[in-house]
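---------- Forwarded message ----------

FYI, see the ABC transporter permease record below. Original note from H. follows.
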Amino acid sequence: MSNKWNPGALLDGLAQMTPLLRKELLEAWRDRRALLMAICFSLMFPAALAGGTIFMVKKQSEDVTRVALIGAERAPLIGEQLQSSGLDVESLAEGDPRDLLAADYDLVLEVTDDFAQRYQDFRAPRLYLYVNSSDTGSGRAQRELQERLGALQQMIVTQRLSARGVAPQLLAPWRLETRDVSTPSSRGALILATVPGLLIMTLFIACLATAVDSSAGERERLSLEPLLVQPLAGWQIITAKTLAVASLGWLGSLLAIGALVLLMPVMPLAEFGIQQATTLAGVVAMGLVLLPLALLVAVVQILLALRSQSFKDAQTQLSILQIAPVVLLMVLDMAQIKLADSWQLLPLIGQQQWLKGLLVGDWVSPLWMLAGSAVTLALVVLAIMVGARALQRESLLSAS
């Protein structure tokens, strides 16, 4: 018998596998618990992301810093210059700074009694700024107040120099101007950095229940043994189960992508200077790049469930598995590690990089996408062969 690869025999094997594939698909899609888990998480995180973004913008727009200015009559110019949309300055004749900070004031600015006299004598009068460092919002409020006081101070210095015939440029050998060259896509990458990891996590969660039920679950229900005595090769059984499990995982990721794209117009991304750059072609590409990964996730989960001791053991192992990749991807994002292009050949990392680019409209190399997807599919085939060999072990049915 020839050991050469025979395309005809492969097609015959796939045709012979069709009834089993139909049976696995029906069982997977009839499992309401698994289907509900896939749909709920797929819709939950885009809604949570949209809600979080809206809440963040609303909080920033409504968050006004309350400043109590004690002794404002001694420095009326300061009280006038501090008034702005972001600062609510209230002039008080007197008051204890501790009590005022406890009474919902963010900052307390006190003008000393000798402020006017020292100001006229050019002796640098003092201002006392009281803050409550245990308040999480005090740091932002302090920076905002210091920026306005610094601008007022610079204006007074310029006026004094000009009044004495001294050019202010003599004290400023250069002037630094900051120009932001970031693009909407690069700013969008900061806001949407967690989305690729969550899309990948959706695959793991959507596949979990079906993968455990079709492997460890069937073994405990004693329905796996009758399947193994059928005139089917091991690779056909694993392939049918992989396709059924991957169909739910892929459905979850497609729902998540669709919900995210539909919610993007509602999200106030323009407040962050971000334009919606995702196109229809980008959405289709995101779905296609997740398909090989869905197959790999499904077959790996099935293999881990088959080697587990029980149904509960399989659930525990796969629950840990679905968290570990997301943690790895988040660490890579937070560390801002610049990866070489060749890293796109690795599953998970490649899909993360492609999804990140497609979400914000950056150019993604089709060659790297095809090469990385091919590597992922090759690993799927390898895992199926490993699973086929595992089905030949008698100890598989006796695991408990």
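H. also flagged this: Strands lie at 65-70, 87-92, 107-111, 127-130.
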